[in-house]
Every structure is written in structure tokens, then in C-alpha cells.
Amino acid sequence: MNKQSISKLSLFLTGLEQRITENADFFKKITIRFKSGTKFYEAVVTLKENRLFLQYNGRNDRMEISWLGARIAKIAEQYEAMNLIYEERGTAIHIDADDRGVKMKTRDQDAADAGKGHNETSQIANRDYYIKVGHADAVLKAIGILGENGKIKNDMIRKYNQIDHYIELVDDMLRNLCARYGKINVVDCGCGKSYLSFVLNYYIKEVLKKNCHFIGLDISKTVINASKKIAEQLDYKNMDFRVTDIRNYTAGEDIHLAISLHACDTATDEAIALAVNNNAKAIVMVPCCQKEILSQYSFDILQSITRHGVLKARLADVLTDGIRLMLLEAMGYKVSIVEYVSPLETPKNLMIRAEKTGGVNKAVIEEYKQLKKLLGISPTLEKLIMPYL
């Protein structure tokens, strides 16, 4: 190729060097085809431990990321033309170069386009899915929702709908966080096998096209090891998993989103406290099995109602989540609570959403103290965030 094309190619390759540096967790490989006459010669570039490896002409050479442009441009000088495909999760960049010039185009596989021709979702429900069969096949198979035949398993239809509705309910929050911070850090408190984190990871990176990093925390070594295996299978290098009690966790970097799904009783309070005490920018919690307040509260004026056990338990559930919302408001969060799934499926169907908007709200603290005294309760969440109240 002529000098003009080589010069322009070098400029594009310099841009790829920067992209690899910034997106190392998402980089897959670079495939190159050099053309000489009617013959083609291939080269492949991979990344391991922050070093590039160039397989070309029977050799596998290690090099710094910053050497990529100069090395490929030098090889390209020997050929008439070349085609380069840069691949990372959710994105492919194509560079075609010859004596007539150099062209570059980015091909983002859009979820909507990729889902065309796949009728499975429309057979499940009349809705436009956020996590589409076709585009999301890899992650849906990895978490056991999609079968090898490319269809949602019959016994997983409900779970698939729940996960997709979760994404629908947090979509605006995710977009706002990505717009504000660029790359976002997500902590999954009591992650279990991390199915929700894997889907969120897919959605943020491959649908919203934003960078992210996930940390899964759980006290069980068994489920952490299972999560690590799924991450390795999916090549999700932007995920870490740690065996730890969430009460003892202190973040080493900003938490933009803290999540927890069906953490039982005061485990939800521990997850909220982790988020508050680490100044998380946003919180999404789906509580489960509220028991603590049930054994504590009394309200004489409602005794004729609460003497019925089932009604006392239901009121305790409302009080538990209401107090959580009050304490989050007291800590400067804007809060909302919505039905996550139909109450016909499970009574544990509420989702708490919170976004940090300000500092401590003393008026809400005083209101909370009066309610606490009136009900005769001593919630765990207050104790866990006491130094910050």
C-alpha cells in the first residue's frame, strides 16, 4: 500500500490502541486478512494480562498495546490491501485499506435488529422484550433460561418474564447513571448465582453500549464459585466475585448501583446499609420475608384489626418497607416503591428504588423517631446506619 494509505491506517490503529486500553475487560480479538494478488494471509491479535499477542507468519509475538499501530502498519506495507475486524462485546469495528484509501465503520449489533426473525418472545407474551431471544442467547443459556434449541424453557418462562420486567423497571435509572458517570460500578449484595447481575451486565454493555464493572458478594463459597464459572463461560471479564459477609464489606471504589434480590428479613437491611454507608449513587432492592417488625410492633388503636394474625403480618410487611423508605429519605435519597411481579405469583413482589439526591434530611429523621416511638420498634436498618444518621 502507498504511504498515504499507511499513514491514515496508522491513525485508525492508534485509536484502536486507546480503545483496547480503555475497554480491556470487553476486548475479544482482532482478525486481519492481508491480500497480495490472489492470495490472503491471516493474522490474529489477542489480549492476555494486559499484553497483546500477534499470531502471524507462524509466530506468536508478545507486544505492548502501544505497539499495535506501528506493528500492523509495518506489515501492511508489504501488501496490496487488508481487512481488519476489531471485536469487543457488543461491537465490531471494520477497517478496509488499499491504495485507494482507508475506510472504517462500526457495527453495533442492535438488540432489536438481532431479535428479528425470533418469534419465541412473541409467543410468551404480547410485549416488546428488553432481553431479546437471539441477541441475548449466550447469557440466557448460561443462566439456564434458554434451551439448546434456542427457545425459552417452559419451566423458565415465569423467571424470564420477571428478569425482563426487572430491566424494564430500572432502565431509566441505568441510562441516567451511564449518562452521568460513563462507566458504572454495580455491587450485588448476597448475589447467589448472580443471574440478575449477568443479565444487567449484558444489558448495560451490549444494549446500552456502556462500560460497567460488577462485584458479587455472598457468604457462600459454593454459589460464588458457580458465579465465577458462568462469568468465565461468558467471557465476562468485568466481573469479580467475593466470599464475604456483606456487613463487613467496604468498597474500594465508587458504587453507582447497589442491588439485592429477595434477601430474607434483615439481610435486605444489611444490603441497604452497605449501599448507604458506601454512599451508593442508586439502590434497587427486592425484599423478602419481613419478620423483624412483626415481632416488635404494637398499635393499640388498631388492636381489633391486628388481633387477626394474617392482617398483623401484612401490616408488618408494609411498615417494614415503609420504614426502609423513610430511612433512605433521611439519608438524602429520592425513593419509590413499585410492584415487581404480580401478587398472584408471590406476595414478596415489591421493588425499592432509590437515587442519591442530597444530604441528611433532619425533618424526615424526626418524623421517623416519632413513628418508631409510637410503634415501639427498634429496626435493624437504623442500627446499621446509625453513625450516618
Automatic annotation (TrEMBL):
A cellular component term, taken from the record's GO annotations: cytoplasm
Occurrences of domain Methyltransferase (ranges): 158-294
InterPro entries per record: Methyltranfer_dom (IPR025714), SAM-dependent_MTases_sf (IPR029063)
Domain of life (superkingdom): Bacteria
The protein, known as: Methyltransferase domain-containing protein
Organism encoding this protein: Ruminiclostridium cellobioparum subsp. termitidis CT1112
Source lineage: Bacteria, Bacillati, Bacillota, Clostridia, Eubacteriales
